[in-house]
Automatic annotation (TrEMBL):
Membrane-protein topology: Multi-pass membrane protein
Domain Solute-binding protein family 3/N-terminal span(s) in chain numbering: 46-375
Residue ranges annotated for the Ionotropic glutamate receptor C-terminal domain, each copy included: 46-374
Source taxon at top rank: Bacteria
SMART domains assigned: PBPb (SM00062), PBPe (SM00079)
Sorted UniProt keywords: Glycoprotein, Ion channel, Ion transport, Membrane, Receptor, Transmembrane, Transmembrane helix, Transport
Alphabetized PANTHER family for the sequence: IONOTROPIC GLUTAMATE RECEPTOR
Cellular compartments annotated: Membrane
Protein name: Transporter substrate-binding domain-containing protein
Transmembrane helix keyword on record: yes
Main location (coarse class): membrane
Amino acid sequence: MNRLAGCSGQVRAKPFALAMAVALAISAMLASPALCETTSRLPDRPLRVVTKVIAPFVLPDTDPPAGFSIDLWAEVARRINVQYQWLVVPTVPELLQAVRTGDADVAVAAISITPEREELLDFSFPYFDSGLQIMIGAAHQGAILASLRSFPWLALGELFAFASVLIFVLANVLMVIEKRQANPSFRKPYWRAVGEGIWGIMLIFSTGEHGDRDTPRVWKRIAVAAMWFLGVLLVAQMTATVTATQTVERLESSIRDVNDLPGKKIASVAGTVAGDELTQRGLPFVAASDLGDAVRMLSHGDVVAVVYDSPTLQYLAATQASGAVQVVGPIFRPQKYGIAVAEGSALRKPINEALLKIYDDGTYERLRAKWFLKQR
């Protein structure tokens, strides 16, 4: 009987102990889900953080990288207590691909959060509001000053040099013709005779005549007509050069927002939100390798506008372009920047928690003031 009672007691004790063990396990999971979900799964090695140059978020020619996004990530990493090392790639597609394939753990730059990218990667909470804007050549103040600055001085200088050589050659030809006719004005020492010839060529260019209307010599009339025709071509070329430049200047100044872009030659960077937006709007653009390449096209007159992320264009215009460019129009295609990690990464939750604390204690505003308010 006692043996049966003992057995019966043991049988009753096992379900109770099992239930207590399950309850304790569930309580532990509920009490610290972050510990089970993130801490135990965080890499025990330095994180590989991939970035790309896009000022002021990541500045060029800095080692180690520097910029707003770099400072923000350093603060996040400090708060989640992880070490990291930098990887730098040249383009946004390469940056995202590095995280997707596992070559990097985190991507930090100025990465726009889009539905297409969200299907392939996970993103942190947004940490910066952005959008697209348009950059054009700067509009100079004052009509006279604007006209002078827009003149193609180099091209006109080349034309003037060519015209000087042409006039000198034609002056010698005219001097020979007049000497053969015993014109007393040309019976002077060489340089004075050439001076008379230059004056005669200028009169031919401007009026189409060279005295001697009644000259019976056909070959002289043909020579004067040929000289006049060369003068007409020269003046026409100078006029066309100036007119073309002024037309480009008017095209630039006519761009005020995205609705003015159709029909204009514009540049952007392929593989970015800006490039995708232009494609969706049916606006062809010259694909630049990076923003610096696009701005060079603008400064050389190969394009009349550049479309790219607003904060980067604003930073460039304020700090590096020396007044040669300006950003125009309102922001279109609003977007938000985030930190990218692989799908299902345990890093997403601690990164978000750190970002919330950075917002809450004023650290974010201090970093933003450091990199953006100093432009003004």
